[in-house]
Design a protein that fits this description.
single chain; 231 residues; mainly alpha; 84% helix; elongated
Length: 231
């Protein structure tokens, strides 16, 4: 019985992830808007700070991570909103699989369409800010893990505020303080790579954050969804 249930859960996660990805393809603005926001902000910084490549390269780690944080916040503000409006969230709570598992496909689809894509194109944005190409692996690795952690934390806040009017402001107040350690670790990894140091400690902290987030965040998200459905 346990093996059959495990197979059902795996099939459910695959099919629901594919469904959410298909919905994003049909509404490309959810994928394009964060990338466009990232690009526009990166283009504006040289205009405001001046075209000096040395100055830009010094500030580039912080700029890239702050913009990635804000892009992720935009994504989290839309999590579960459409599901609540069309009744899908209530159906999700009554699914055969545990709610902590049922919310994972949407998070995975959101990360694939935003965090993964943003991480893969980030070396191009880094070059625009004067980052050398040899730090691209550290940039991509740190953003892959950092965007995953931020999405998990943001999903907890989104689950708690999805039924609240003007929940976006409350969501930002809840999760921005939690993003600060991720921002520090990600920026530290890039600075170490730029200065010829060892970025593995900062990357290991991000990896530990992903592991802890995957273990604890789904339970918190499920509890938040149930609280929002009872409001």
């Amino acid at each position: 019985m346990t093996e059959a249930r495990d197979i059902d859960i795996l099939h459910y996660c695959r099919s629901q992830t594919a469904r959410h990805l298909m919905l994003m393809v049909r509404s490309p603005s959810e994928v394009v808007n964060p990338l466009l926001f990232f690009l526009l902000v990166i283009l504006l910084f040289p205009l405001g700070l001046g075209p000096d490549p040395e100055q830009l390269s010094v500030l580039a780690p912080g700029i890239l991570w702050v913009v990635a944080l804000l892009s992720n916040l935009m994504i989290c503000m839309r999590l579960f909103v459409d599901d609540l409006e069309d009744g899908s969230l209530e159906q999700l709570a009554m699914a055969r699989v545990p709610l902590s598992v049922a919310v994972l496909p949407q998070l995975l689809a959101s990360w694939l369409a935003s965090g993964l894509l943003l991480s893969l194109v980030s070396p191009i944005f880094g070059l625009m800010l004067g980052l050398p190409l040899d730090v691209a692996p550290v940039l991509v690795a740190s953003l892959l893990m950092g965007t995953a952690i931020m999405l998990l934390l943001g999903a907890v806040g989104a689950a708690l505020t999805v039924g609240v009017q003007r929940g976006g402001i409350l969501l930002a107040l809840l999760i921005l303080p939690l993003y600060v350690p991720i921002l520090i670790a990600g920026t530290r990894a890039l600075n170490e790579a730029l200065q010829g140091g060892d970025p593995t400690v900062a990357l290991a902290l991000l990896g530990a954050g992903v592991t802890g987030g995957l273990l604890l965040a789904p339970l918190a998200i499920a509890a938040g969804v149930r609280v929002s459905l009872e409001l």
